[in-house]
Amino acid sequence: xxxxxxxxxxxxxxxxxxxxxxxxxxxxxxxxxxxxxxxxxxxxxxxxxxxxxxxxxxxxxxxxxxxxxxxxxxxxxxxxxxxxxxxxxxxxxxxxxxxxxxxxxxxxxxxxxxxxxxxxxxxxxxxxxxxxxxxxxxxxxxxx
Length: 144
Fold this sequence. Notes:
By secondary structure, the chain is mainly alpha-helical.
């Protein structure tokens, strides 16, 4: 059973998938930073400085004690976080679309290159017609 597991793990598809997951996680962090630190402030400034992550509908407010500590947290629908997540998803999906499109284009170009017939090798150049006739004439003169 251990040998089967080792064989399964060492197959190319599993290793490719593992690399894809790891790179995908890192790529997700980059895109999240791009969205949170670059795009959302720009979008927020267009909408009068709104911070989308703070947008929420409070269903029940937080209950505080005399010291000002939270006894019961507020219940809220944080639709701003949802908007942020949708923007993250759209950017990641668009980047993946561009990457897949580039890979498909490269694969298609490679296929076309393989399908192109190889140029026929040039035949060795022989004597011209005049050279052949001259040679025949000279041979006929010698035989007389």
